[in-house]
Each structure stands twice: as structure tokens, then as C-alpha cells.
Design brief:
heterodimer, A: mainly alpha, 3 helices, B: 251 residues, two-stranded antiparallel ribbon, 3 strands
Chain lengths: 185, 251
């Protein structure tokens, strides 16, 4: 009896399995327990409940951090642009100043050149004058020297010739003439 | 005869389908169709998320763009931590894809009520609970680190096998096999075990009792994705650096 019961249940099982196999193919299985739907729903619920907070916080922080970084960069860019404009202004001023300095320096140089030229011309004139003075002084000195020389040479000549020419008679005449010159008469 | 009937009686109680697959025949190949379906689903999910995130890009990210940028930053930091500032950039897409795919795959298995959809055979689950998926991913990692090594050093890459001492040559060669093996088995084992534990618990006590295990499963899934991506990065880094410190196996 028992055997028959088991056989019967086995047959029915086989039949149901056959039916399932024949049904085959794809399909949906809406057995909530077998598909573990309740547990999955709870797990997903837990995940969403805890995950959402964490994720939205993290993502929000990330987003705001990026936003902040962007605005910071924007601010810095503006600041830098301002700085750049100021520096460019300074550069322009400096360039203008440089031009002015160059112009002034050129003027100075021109003046200095003229002054130096004038100075040099003056110097040249002075030196010429000095040289001329030197020349005439030298001439005078040489003339003087020549005169002295000639006088000396004349004296020597005279002294050399004197003993030949000078005798008692002549001496006597000379003395007489000298006396006469003195005005004795 | 009686035994046969007894097993039949018990069968509906423990109708946990392990090792049953929804086979597709492609040429001479038999592929696990349910894995393909969920893989496509995960890939589509990621692609749609990326498209949503990049549809209208704003300077200050909001919504989907913000979320995906956050994810990108996460995987970028992960790659940078493993590969170093100098080398990490070209590897971000690879490691990031690994992480995102495995993460979403694992969580899809843990969060989506796949059992609502009935297949002719087998059942839908996380793609990573099939060894083929994880082996494919692990082999991709192997190819990636060999590529990295050869690209960086040419044939000099082989020098790393005898670098500290030629005595360790067999172990160095063995490592190239154990790396994909451990990568694939770790991921596969963790995800499959998690789903089996949840499945068995659901069969025994359908309500509430499986909850802690399911939450733990979520945690494990995330950790496994992280571990896989981190180890992929570590292996690539090792290939780029040549011999060097061994990286700890994480789980």
C-alpha cells in the first residue's frame, strides 16, 4: 500500500516535471518566496536607505568642491588679469620713461659733445699760441746767443790780432788819443 | 526502486540547481547561455550609465555625470596606487573596466531577483559565478601584464625570471600559471559560494534569516571586485618593474 502511495506521488511528480519541461522555454516565475523577493527587497531597501545618504553626501561634497575650485580659479583669473593690466600700465610708463631718458641722454650727449669740441678748439688755439710764443722766445734766445758768440769771437779775433798790430808807437798813439778823448787838450 | 522514489520525493525540497546550464550550441561549442545573458545585461548597464553620464557634460558635474566621475576617480586612484604616478595612466581603462564590470556583475547577482525569469534550464545569476567568466577575466589580466612587460622591456622581460637568482626560475614560471589560477578561482569561489549559501538558506528559511548573509554577500562582492582589480594592477606593476617585492594575496 505504502509502495503504491509512493509510486503515485512519484508518478505525479514526474508528470509535473514533464509538464514543466514541456512548457520549457522562457517564462516568468512569480513565486515570491522562491524568487527570494522579500529578502531582496529588504536588502535593496537597506542599501538605498544607507547608500543614498552616503552617496548624496559624497557626491554633493564633490560637486561643491569642484564648484568652489572653479570659482576660486575664476577669482584668481580675474585677480591675475587685474594684476596684468596694472603691470602692463607700469610697463607702458616705464617704456615712456625709457624714451624720455634716452632723449634726455641724447641731448646731454649732444651738449657734452659741443662743449668738448669747443674746449678742444680753444685748447688747440691756446697751444698754437703757446707754440708761437715759444718759437719767438727761442728765436730771441738764439739771436742773443749768436750775438754773444759773435762778440766773443770778435773779441778773440781782436785779441789774437792785437799783439801783431800793437807796438809802442801805436800804443802811444792810442794813449794819446784816449787822453785827447778824455778832453785834456 | 524505493531509493529512486525517495530521491524524487526529496527533489522538490532541495531544488537548488547547481551545475545546470542553459546551453547554447554555437558551432562545436557549448556555451552557457545564462552567463551570456547576464553578462550582456551588466555590460548594457555600464554602457547606458556611461552614455547617461556623458550625454550632456557640464563643468560642474551633476547627477549621473557626478556619479560616474566619482567612479572614474576611484578606479584612477586604484590604478595609481598600484602602478605608480608614472605608469598608471594607460592602464586606467583596463583596470577600471575590470573593477566596474566585476563590481556590477557581483552586485547584480546579489541584488536583482533573477529568479523571476525562468529559463528552460539553469538559472540566471551573477556572470562571475561561472568559472568561464572569471577565467576569461584572469587570462585577460595575464595577457595584459605580459604585454606591459614586453612593451616596456622587450625580450629583456625574460630577465625577470632569473633576476634575484636563477634558482627561483621554476617558481617564477609557475607564478605565471598561479596568478590567473588564483585570480579566477578566488572570484569564482567567493561569488558562487555566496550565492549558494544564500540559496540554501532561502530554501531552508525563506524569510529574514538569509538577510545577514545577503548583506555580507554584498560586502564580499564589492571586496572581491576591488581585490581583482587591485591584483591586476599589482601584477602589471610587477611586470613593469621587473623583479621586486611580492604582493600579498588578499583573500
Amino acid at each position: 500500500m505504502d509502495i503504491f502511495l509512493q509510486l503515485a506521488s512519484g508518478a505525479s511528480l514526474i508528470a509535473s516535471e514533464m509538464a514543466e519541461a514541456a512548457e520549457g522555454g522562457f517564462g516568468f516565475n512569480f513565486d515570491i518566496i522562491e524568487a527570494n523577493l522579500v529578502n531582496l527587497a529588504i536588502v535593496i531597501g537597506i542599501l538605498v536607505y544607507f547608500g543614498r545618504g552616503f552617496l548624496s553626501k559624497t557626491l554633493g561634497e564633490r560637486s561643491s568642491a569642484i564648484e568652489q575650485a572653479l570659482s576660486e580659479a575664476e577669482r584668481r583669473r580675474a585677480e591675475t588679469a587685474k594684476l596684468l593690466a596694472a603691470e602692463q600700465e607700469k610697463l607702458k610708463n616705464a617704456q615712456a620713461e625709457a624714451v624720455a631718458i634716452v632723449a634726455k641722454a641724447e641731448g646731454d650727449a649732444q651738449r657734452a659733445r659741443e662743449a668738448i669740441l669747443a674746449n678742444a678748439a680753444e685748447e688747440v688755439a691756446r697751444m698754437k699760441q703757446e707754440a708761437a710764443a715759444n718759437l719767438s722766445a727761442e728765436q730771441a734766445r738764439i739771436l742773443n746767443e749768436l750775438r754773444v758768440r759773435i762778440a766773443e769771437m770778435a773779441m778773440q779775433q781782436a785779441e789774437a790780432q792785437l799783439p801783431g798790430r800793437l807796438n809802442d808807437d801805436a800804443q802811444q798813439r792810442l794813449v794819446d788819443r784816449s787822453i785827447a778823448l778824455l778832453g785834456g787838450q | 526502486m524505493l531509493n529512486f522514489l525517495d530521491t524524487l520525493n526529496i527533489a522538490p525540497l532541495a531544488s537548488l540547481e547547481v551545475g545546470q546550464h542553459f546551453y547554447w550550441h554555437i558551432g562545436n561549442l557549448k556555451v552557457h547561455g545564462q552567463v551570456f545573458l547576464t553578462t550582456w545585461f551588466v555590460a548594457a548597464l555600464l554602457i547606458i550609465a556611461s552614455l547617461l553620464a556623458t550625454r550632456k557634460i557640464q563643468q560642474v558635474p551633476k547627477g549621473a555625470q557626478n556619479l560616474m566621475e566619482y567612479a572614474l576617480e576611484f578606479v584612477r586612484d586604484l590604478a595609481r596606487n598600484q602602478l605608480g604616478e608614472k605608469e598608471y595612466r594607460p592602464w586606467v581603462p583596463f583596470i577600471g573596466t575590470l573593477f566596474l564590470f566585476i563590481f556590477v556583475a557581483n552586485w547584480s547577482g546579489a541584488l536583482i531577483p533573477w529568479k523571476l525569469i525562468k529559463l528552460p534550464e539553469g538559472e540566471l545569476a551573477a556572470p562571475t559565478n561561472d568559472i568561464n567568466t572569471t577565467v576569461a577575466l584572469a587570462l585577460l589580466v595575464s595577457i595584459a601584464y605580459f604585454y606591459a612587460g614586453f612593451k616596456k622591456k622587450g625580450l629583456g622581460y625574460f630577465g625577470k625570471y632569473v633576476q634575484p637568482t636563477p634558482v627561483l626560475l621554476p617558481i617564477a614560471i609557475l607564478e605565471d600559471f598561479t596568478k590567473p589560477l588564483s585570480l579566477s578561482f578566488r572570484l569564482f569561489g567567493n561569488i558562487l559560494a555566496d550565492e549558494l549559501v544564500v540559496g540554501v538558506l532561502v530554501l531552508l528559511v525563506p524569510l529574514f534569516v538569509p538577510l545577514p548573509v545577503m548583506l555580507l554577500g554584498l560586502f564580499t562582492s564589492a571586496i572581491q571586485a576591488l581585490v581583482f582589480a587591485t591584483l591586476a594592477g599589482a601584477y602589471i606593476h610587477e611586470a613593469l618593474e621587473g623583479h621586486g617585492d611580492e604582493h600579498e594575496e588578499h583573500a
